[in-house]
Amino acid sequence: MDKFLIRGGKALRGSVAISGAKNSALPVMAAALLTAEKVAVHNIPKVRDLVTMSKLLTFMDAKVSVAEMPASDYVIEAPRLNHAEAPYELVKTMRASILTLGPLMARLGVARVSLPGGCAIGARPVDLHLSALEKMGAEITMSHGYIEAKVPGKGSKGGRLKGAHIVFEKITVTGTENILMAATLADGETVLNNCAREPEVTDLVGMLRKMGAQIEGDGTATLRIRGVPELHGTEHRVIPDRIETGTFLVAGAITGGDLTITNCEPLHQGAVIGKLQQAGACIEEVDKATLRVRAGKKLAAADMTTEEYPGFATDMQAQYMALATQAEGTSVISETIFENRFLHASEMVRMGANISIDGRRAFVHGPAALSGTTVQASDLRASAGLVLAGLVANGETVIERVYHIDRGYEHIVEKLRAVGADMERIHGSGSGMHSATSAQGT
Ligand code: UD1
Fold this sequence. Notes:
alpha/beta; 442 residues; four-stranded mixed β-sheet; disordered C terminus
């Protein structure tokens, strides 16, 4: 397995370009299953989860054309889907495989998707996806570890989903996306209440609308979808990755550097920019797609609570914790989205951080002089937090199990090196884009 070796203490300076959003690219690729026509998608990040999604679509008999793999431009054509199934072998490496359930049910009225298990950061059930599909007329059973869903119809084929009024008990990002996609081809109108308002949901709405879907309410908690008989092909460019952007904002601030972050969407960074400014970082919007972060005054503790968008993203919590270890005073970090998302804290403590955990709250006492050691990445965003800690630690930090970070950060080592990080990837046996076996993290 690959590892990262980081020699900390370098201030990062220069310019870094942000890739497309992993969490937008995944539903956008799945949405291509909704039409028999050609769908071209651009700005797909070259990360392992998208390679997995591509394999999943191919398994279902969609034709996925790319110049090379991993790619940033894909053409997907699914005239026939002979295998309405997401097999365990792929789902176990990527929970977001569940995003194929909605499109398959919409197009074919039948689907078999392996149940994603629990994961390091929490139980992460998909009950809200399933109960919404049931309200739309699907019959769902669990068998041999698989979700087997079917809309009763003629013969062995599935029927058509029916519009329904659905109130999500809890705000769920992929749940909103799945049911939104399912509703585009349903009979009649679907109203979804208590929807996720994440920019990735809005990006998906934009793409579906280009395919002919009739959707109102994007960016709000209520989506209203009038089902249409069929959708057509389109071309779509996914939005910049706001979590990668936030990670580089922290990288600039924590190392006392001066980073210009290009190809990003500053409008999606409100909560992160606000919190980092409160902690003492100096951040300015250079233009509509560029941010600059510099060390301001000394970093100072600032409490942070994770929330659904537009609040502070749980996917930025580990990175913020790394910053908090360097801030003067006690930062209280409250995690409200996932029940077990402080796994990185114990690794940061091994590096010299002073962190105590009480349930869903972490008390980070800073500043602490971090010293390099060998640490284990437990999930995707935890890995990013450890990389940031390594960038300010004294001496050498070795991060093991970096296949987690390869799931979601394009060329992270190259990008950090280009702005002055002293860091390298150490290749191990059985490593690389295709070898990981864990779906942990997000
Ligand atoms: C998505 C993101 C992930 C991010 C998370 C929260 C993708 C591919 N992943 O994950 O990076 O960390 O949103 O912003 O977009 N829940 C239920 N029942 C359900 C569904 C969810 O109880 O049926 C709970 C979850 O356990 C969790 C909370 O709702 O506690 C939010 O989860 P959800 O928004 O669904 O996360 P994902 O969509 O899996």
